[in-house]
Amino acid sequence: MTSMPTSRKKPRPLPRSFYRRDPLIVAPALLNKLLVCHDGRAGRIVEVEAYRGADDPAAHSYRGKTPRNAVMFGPPGHMYVYFTYGMHWCSNVVCEGTVEGSAVLIRALQPVAGLDLMHAARPLAKNDRQLCNGPACLTQAMSISKLQDGIDLVGGDAYALVDDGVPPPVQPVQTTRIGLTKATDFPWRWYLADCAYVSRK
């Protein structure tokens, strides 16, 4: 199991300009940033996937704006939450690049704070590693649901993506995305090498 990255830098929310870029740039840059909840729960991002609007047949926004994906066409830096498989929520951050409707799916976190609250929210997790090692797991552990769809991660006070000075990895693992039937050859998934908290290697 890899050691947990640490920094003495004062944590600060990522600025709007961070997200106002192509998701293929934003996604790997999100690695090692923190997803923080107002109640003290926090996890370091260790795995992400990019979805690129009309250029990406696997993106929810590929065929245009709908009530379900409307947040993806809004300002960058907001959270897009969707329901999948009739039972799970997944959390994304909206980006803005060369096409509209772009976002980055947060696939896995390494828990760093509020683990007692995470275990209470996710009682089926047998250990800390299982708390956030998948997109549905982390939304349960962080109590993210449809209520958070559209919230501002830059200026809001409920959830934020935070930089505490730990840089993204110089050479993250880059692979194709998981669980798709379209655009299965796009290498738009990144994760930390040798990290025990990723969803799948």
UniProtKB/TrEMBL annotation:
Gene3D superfamilies: Methylpurine-DNA glycosylase (MPG)
Record's signal peptide: none
A GO MF term: hydrolase activity, acting on glycosyl bonds
EC number: 3.2.2.-
Enzyme class: hydrolase
UniProt keyword annotations, A-Z: DNA damage, DNA repair, Glycosidase, Hydrolase
Source organism superkingdom: Bacteria
Protein name: Putative 3-methyladenine DNA glycosylase
